[in-house]
């Protein structure tokens, strides 16, 4: 599938999740909401880690994350923060609770319906220093040298050209700024059926690259002091794998060296 086709799949699926949550007026509970982007079944990658986090807003939590990047982002009062793939605004509101009234938080999302959902949530909260912008992470409609910190939660793995994404992150960060992102990576060779299926791509799995490749891309863009803060196994239920793999392929996948992981990593711009 071409990059533009994959982007369209992502946009359509996440638009459906946003619109569904608007209709139901309640958060979803899995990496795919209930839109069927993991086939007909759901599975959660993050659980309830946000429950006791300051700034957490259940209305903004669509269950789409795979980590807690703000936990390791070293945010400070007054920082200008960019959240890539901001969704309904969950991590933006958590970041805003840390940077305070003198800080600023900008959410960038590819999907119009998500930006609308996040903007509506922000209007309810009445924050004047949080804004949401629609745009492509590979070509951010944002100025150079503008942000102190970039965060992102289970989004960059959905971007077809991760080299462009990290190059853009380097461009918009201030000198001395840094990023901290949670994402999905793999070890070993992902089975072809999982890797190629567009539905699983939107489920945050098939778009992932190897952990070594992921770190190599970060280093190649000039980021320094690259640190892996957390690495967590993502277990895909047998019922989901059964949609893509034969019994023998499933056994090989589960018993081999291949694994799917949530990684939280940071890096600095000099």
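Sequence proposed for the structure above (270 residues):
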């Amino acid at each position: 599938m071409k990059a533009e086709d994959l982007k369209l799949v992502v946009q359509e699926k996440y638009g459906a999740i946003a619109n569904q949550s608007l209709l139901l007026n309640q958060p979803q509970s899995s990496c795919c909401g209930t839109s069927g982007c993991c086939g007909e079944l759901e599975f959660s990658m993050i659980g309830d880690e946000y429950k006791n986090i300051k700034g957490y807003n259940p209305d903004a939590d669509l269950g789409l994350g795979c980590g807690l990047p703000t936990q390791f982002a070293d945010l400070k009062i007054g920082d200008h923060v960019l959240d890539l793939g901001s969704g309904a605004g969950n991590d933006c509101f958590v970041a805003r609770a840390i940077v305070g009234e003198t800080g600023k938080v900008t959410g960038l999302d590819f999907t119009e319906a998500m930006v609308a959902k996040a903007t509506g949530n922000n209007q309810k909260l009445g924050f004047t220093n949080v804004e949401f912008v629609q745009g492509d992470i590979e070509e951010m409609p944002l100025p150079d040298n503008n942000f102190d910190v970039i965060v992102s939660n289970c989004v960059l793995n959905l971007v077809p050209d991760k080299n462009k994404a990290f190059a853009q992150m380097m461009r918009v960060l201030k000198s001395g700024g840094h990023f901290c992102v949670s994402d999905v990576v793999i070890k070993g060779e992902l089975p072809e059926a999982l890797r190629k299926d567009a539905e699983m791509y939107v489920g945050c799995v098939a778009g992932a690259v190897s952990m070594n490749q992921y770190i190599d891309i970060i280093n190649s863009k000039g980021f320094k002091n690259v640190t892996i803060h957390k690495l967590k196994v993502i277990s895909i239920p047998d019922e989901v794998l059964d949609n893509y793999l034969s019994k023998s392929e499933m056994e090989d996948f589960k018993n081999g060296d291949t694994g799917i992981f949530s990684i939280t990593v940071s890096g600095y711009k000099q």
